[in-house]
Structure formats: structure tokens, C-alpha cells
């Protein structure tokens, strides 16, 4: 490992570094905010900010540990204050992600506007820590915390625009965008895929008998069942009140029908607890269409809907497959 001696700067150099960092922070924050607005992820944005911060520090390295990473971080990362041993022992720490050693480290906590710990800024000093930088580094931590909070806020806004609030599934508009994309991919690659349309049977009667709160629980439990049965590559959407739809990439209609049968069986076995002592049971009807039998979005959805209508007409709690 690379060894370093005391690399502290003179006071004029340190003062220049502190002042330079103070002047640079507003611009760094604005550039980072612009990157967030462009849809870039924190994993690319924050390291770039830290690299700029390091330019103003006297022989130090910066690392950022977000809250969910604290448990698996290096020993220094969990600290909220200076970590160092007696000078006579001259302890050394390996800076994460580098071959450099550090003699001491300081942790500067990141707090959200609500006072929640969101991470820690770790500064690893190759020489003796410069206490005059502490106020500026606390300010850096506040800037980083604001960036993390803004990123989470934007991510939540994006999720709200694309997901159904109740079930967490994709909403109707995003589902149709995925369907268009899957259709284009299948046309390029010559692969098949299937579409399921699902409707919970007698859902209005559930709302009328048990109340809308029970109906909401039924919708949530059904959505969770679909997540547990389907692949990560499958696209699940809630496209109406009690209507759901699924895109099954690389799946022929026969395989889709077999999967639909399993969904029927598992749904009929579900018991949703309501008001502590009432079990609500329900079933589902499913209609299936497939590409290349139907080669555009409207045809795929309308044919799956027709198959669903037949399933309802023929007694509910069944699967119907639409063919050419």
C-alpha cells in the first residue's frame, strides 16, 4: 500500500482552499441539480461533486455513504465525528476505493429537512486533520443532503406519474407505452409475446357488501399475487377500476394460458381479512391475445378484451384465448 507522510498545507494555502470551496459550492450544487433534472442518477452525480470538493482539501479523500450503505461501509463511515488513535501509534486506514492510506478521518452527517439521517460524508486525511475545514465540510454535508433529498423527491414525482397509487403497479398510460415498445421489439426480433386482460369478478358486489376499504384491500392483494407469480420482465398494469393487464414477453399464447390458469387457482384461494374477523374471497376472469396473431396495439388489446368478455359470459373465473 502507498504510504504518505504529513501533507498539511501552510495556513495561506489552507485559507485559499477554504475560500475556494465556499465559492465553488453554489455552482457545484446548481450543476448537480441540473443533472438530477436531466434524469441522471445519484451514483453518477455525487462522486463528481466529491471529486470537485477534494480539489480544495489539503491531502484528503472524500467518500459518501448513504443511509442504506452504512452497515456495510468501512469502520470510519459509521462515525459521526473524528476517528483517530494516539499520535504515538499513528493509525492508518485504507481509503475505500483507493490504494491510499489515511491517518485519520472525520464524519459529517447528512440530515434531511425533516431531521432524518440520510448518510455520512467521510473525509480521510492523509496528514493531520485540519480543524479549520470543519465548518466548510459541514456546509458541504448540508449541500449533499439537499441533493439527496431533491433526487428522492424527483424520483417520487416520476413514480407517481407512472404508477397507480393504490397498487403500485404501472398505470394505464405507461402500460400502453410498454406495450408499444414490446410490439416494436417483437417486430424487429421475430419473437412472440402475449397480453392478458383481467377483471375481478363481482367486484362491485364486494364494495357494496363490505365497503370500499375492503375493495381496496382486494385490489392490493391481487396486485401482490401477480407480482409473486410473474417474472421481473413481465409488465403489470392496473388499467381501470378492477381491470388489470399484463405483457408477457417471449411467451406464446399456450404458455400464457397455462400461467393464467395458475393465476385463477391462486386467486380463488386468496382470503383477504377485513375488519379483523371477515374473510373476503373473490375470483378473476382472464382474456388472452398474442403477437404475431395480432400485430398492433389496438388489435392486441381489443382481442384480449373480447376474450375477457367471453370468459365473463361463460361463467366467470375462467380463461379464454383469442386466436386468429
UniProtKB/TrEMBL annotation:
Short name of one Pfam family: GGDEF
Native organism: Marinobacter lutaoensis
CDD domains the UniProt entry points to: GGDEF (cd01949)
Protein name: diguanylate cyclase
Catalytic reactions on record: 2 GTP = 3',3'-c-di-GMP + 2 diphosphate
Domain GGDEF: 191-324
Any one Gene Ontology molecular-function term assigned to this protein's record: diguanylate cyclase activity
UniProt xrefs under SUPFAM superfamilies: Nucleotide cyclase (SSF55073)
Its EC number(s): 2.7.7.65
NCBIfam families linked: GGDEF (TIGR00254)
Top enzyme class: transferase
UniProt cross-references to InterPro entries, sorted A to Z: Diguanylate_Cyclase (IPR050469), GGDEF_dom (IPR000160), Nucleotide_cyclase (IPR029787), Rev_trsase/Diguanyl_cyclase (IPR043128)
Reported cofactor(s): Mg(2+)
Amino acid at each position: 500500500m502507498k504510504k504518505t507522510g504529513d501533507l498539511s498545507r501552510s495556513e495561506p494555502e489552507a485559507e485559499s482552499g477554504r475560500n475556494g470551496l465556499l465559492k465553488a459550492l453554489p455552482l457545484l450544487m446548481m450543476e448537480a441539480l441540473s443533472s438530477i433534472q436531466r434524469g441522471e442518477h445519484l451514483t453518477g452525480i455525487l462522486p463528481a461533486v466529491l471529486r470537485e470538493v477534494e480539489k480544495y482539501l489539503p491531502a484528503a479523500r472524500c467518500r459518501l455513504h448513504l443511509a442504506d450503505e452504512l452497515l456495510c461501509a468501512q469502520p470510519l463511515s459509521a462515525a459521526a465525528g473524528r476517528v483517530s488513535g494516539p499520535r504515538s501509534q499513528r493509525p492508518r486506514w485504507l481509503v475505500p476505493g483507493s490504494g491510499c492510506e489515511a491517518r485519520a478521518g472525520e464524519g459529517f452527517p447528512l440530515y434531511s429537512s425533516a431531521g432524518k439521517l440520510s448518510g455520512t460524508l467521510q473525509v480521510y486525511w492523509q496528514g493531520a486533520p485540519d480543524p479549520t475545514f470543519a465548518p466548510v465540510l459541514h456546509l458541504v454535508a448540508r449541500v449533499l443532503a439537499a441533493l439527496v433529498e431533491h433526487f428522492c423527491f424527483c424520483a417520487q414525482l416520476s413514480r407517481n406519474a407512472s404508477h397507480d397509487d393504490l397498487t403500485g403497479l404501472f398505470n394505464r398510460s405507461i402500460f400502453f407505452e410498454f406495450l408499444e415498445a414490446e410490439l416494436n421489439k417483437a417486430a424487429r426480433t421475430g419473437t412472440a409475446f402475449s397480453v392478458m386482460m383481467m377483471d375481478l369478478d363481482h367486484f362491485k358486489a364486494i364494495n357494496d357488501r363490505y365497503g370500499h376499504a375492503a375493495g381496496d384491500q382486494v385490489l392490493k392483494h391481487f396486485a401482490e399475487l401477480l407480482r409473486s407469480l410473474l417474472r421481473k420482465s413481465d409488465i403489470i398494469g392496473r388499467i381501470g377500476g378492477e381491470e388489470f393487464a399484463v405483457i408477457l414477453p417471449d411467451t406464446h399464447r399456450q404458455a400464457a394460458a397455462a400461467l393464467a390458469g395458475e393465476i385463477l387457482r391462486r386467486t380463488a384461494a386468496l382470503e383477504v381479512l377485513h375488519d379483523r374477523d371477515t374473510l373476503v374471497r373473490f375470483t378473476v376472469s382472464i382474456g388472452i391475445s398474442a403477437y404475431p396473431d395480432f400485430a398492433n396495439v389496438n388489435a392486441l388489446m381489443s382481442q384480449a378484451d373480447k376474450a375477457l368478455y367471453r370468459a365473463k359470459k361463460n361463467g366467470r373465473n375462467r380463461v379464454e384465448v383469442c386466436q386468429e
